[in-house]
Amino acid sequence: MDLIFNVLTTAKEQYPNNEAHAEVMKMMTRGDKLSVKFGTTKNQHPYAWVESKTVAGFKYELDAERAKNLIKYMVTGEVSDYAGDLMQSDTLKANEDYQWEVMKQFIENGQTLQYTPLFREYNDKISAMKSMFKGTVFFRIPRTTEYLDYLREHQQDI
């Protein structure tokens, strides 16, 4: 019985990121407009939740190159090859919020984000989006003093 349980536990822990990558590549090759949300798994791996008009959302674990290729596609429509190990992804520091890190990169690179006015938002969230040629990135971060101060310091229209 222990052998069966160990096999089931091992199979459950391995996310089929190679299949997720293949689906993302099909979507990009077709020229789909993507909707993307970034996040961090329970095991501290960065991921993108990817969906389109014709494909339901799914998790795609990332490393720096896959993240760059995904953003590059949404900005330019150009599909890039990936030569790394699809089953490996970056590991973040404990309690690091990948969504917030991506949002900061957009802001620090001079990108304009569109924010939902705070009076229309739930009390505990800040929502923003960035529309691009081949997709949109959606952000929904905690409404903390630290995040609000950062956004105001960087002249964001929240």
Short précis:
By secondary structure, the protein is of the alpha+beta class.
End-to-end Cα distance, whole Å, is: 56 Å
Beta strands, count: 6
Oligomer: single chain
Structural category? alpha+beta
- What integer is the average pLDDT? 90
The rough form would be described as globular
Bin the strand percentage: 15-25%
- Biggest sheet strand order reads 3-2-1-6-5-4
Low-confidence stretches: none
Strand and helix order:
HHEEEHHEEEH
Q: Major β-sheet, in short?
A: 6 strands, mixed
Radius of gyration: 17 Å
What percent of residues adopt helix (DSSP H or I)? 25-40%
> How many individual helices?
5
What does this structure look like?
By secondary structure, this protein is α+β, with helices and mostly antiparallel strands. 37% of the residues lie in helices and 22% in strands. The protein is built from 5 helices and 6 strands. The chain has helices at residues 2-13, 17-30, 64-76, 98-108, 145-153; strands at 34-40, 46-51, 58-61, 114-115, 125-132, 135-142. The protein has a 6-stranded mixed β-sheet. The longest helix has 14 residues, at 17-30.
